[in-house]
Amino acid sequence: MTVVGTDGSYTKPLTRDYITIYPGQTYDVLLEANQHPDHYYMAAKTYSIAPAARNFFDNTTTTAIVQYRGYYTPSSPLSLPYLPTYNDTNASVQVMAGLRSLADAEHPCNVPLSPSTKLIYTVGMNSYLCPNNSCAGPNGTRFSASINNISFQFPTIDILQAYYYNISGVYGDKFPSVPELVVSKNGTEVRVLKYNSTVEIVFQGTNLIAGTHHPMHLHGYSFYVVGWGFGNFDKDKDPLRYNLVDPPLQSTISVPTKGWAAIRFEASNPGVWFMHCHVERHQTWGMDTAFIVKNGKHPEAQVLPPPSDMPPC
Fold it and tell me: Is the pTM higher than 0.90?
């Protein structure tokens, strides 16, 4: 298989026997039917770091058959293609490690070289105390998730409406640039960005409750994935290894298990934009936040008013 695009953007051709698609991601893949006419299995299975004995996930293999047209006797039995073990983290990042944008005259790579706003966002699992230890999590707690130790709470009035009509008390605008050294707390905090500011976010996975991958998705934008790695991000050494020549342009990046990923983008789309983990449980547990991108000077760089027939939430 040859990967030629991801999340709606072209990439340099990347040939692999298997690809890892994280929740929220899309890939454009070419398959050349150049084998001897026969029936061939196409197979897929889940990647997970959960212990197999706990049965936290569906560990079966799903299959389909690619069938050549013509007159022939198909092989029997069909052989299954090789897939890595369900918890092979190194195998899970092989496509991500090889992705490169086209970066040519027709598809320029406009990665910001000197970001004006640098953010470090920890993404991790947490737990909350319950009255009388009454919940079903460890020691009577309940699971939660957070970004920079803030577990997002959805307001009763949407943030875009509150921002547009200047309704106070709906959200806070002091989302921290680096993780706070506090026990995880609830909050409805957002980050405000100036129009056309250039932004770098380093997502750092944590291992407070369980270290796992987090496919982070940003609404309203595509971003350049300039670097990633395992372990803790080193602010002095790791930026020296950034790819600032032809990084892939994506809208969802999976932060590796117990690792980090760095993205850059230009905040040129005014409005309120949700950012969240695309693992649904993590999202509902609070691994969310939002960016408010301020208006620019020109009319086309300003938030449009809501339509007159917009239904209420």
Answer: yes
Amino acid occupying residue 296: G
DSSP strand pairing (259-266 vs 223-230): antiparallel
Q: How far is CA 204 from CA 179, 213, 228, in A?
A: 10, 10, 10
Which residues touch 132 (CB under 8 Å, ≥6 apart)? 140
Tens-digit pLDDT profile for the chain (313 aa)?
999 999 999 999 999 999 999 999 999 999 999 999 999 999 999 888 766 555 567 778 899 999 999 999 999 999 899 999 888 889 999 999 999 999 999 999 999 999 999 999 999 888 777 777 777 777 777 788 999 999 999 999 999 999 999 999 999 999 999 998 877 789 999 999 999 999 999 999 987 777 688 999 999 999 999 999 999 999 999 999 999 999 999 999 999 988 999 999 999 999 999 999 998 989 999 999 999 999 999 999 999 998 889 887 6
**Encoded tokens for 6:** 């991801």
Query: Is the CB of residue 250 less than 8 Å from the CB of residue 25?
Result: yes
**CA distances in angstroms from 236 to 111, 225, 241, listed in the order given:** 20, 18, 10
DSSP state of 80: P
Do residues 96 and 259 make contact, with C-beta atoms less than 8 angstroms apart? Answer: no
CA distance 176 to 39: 55
Instruction: State the amino acid at position 110 in one-letter form.
Output: N
139: left (phi over 0), alpha (psi -120 to 50) or beta: left
Copy the structure tokens of residue 85: 């073990």
DSSP conformation letters of 136-185: SSGGG-EEEEEETTEEE---SS-HHHHHHTT-TTS-BS---SS--SS--E
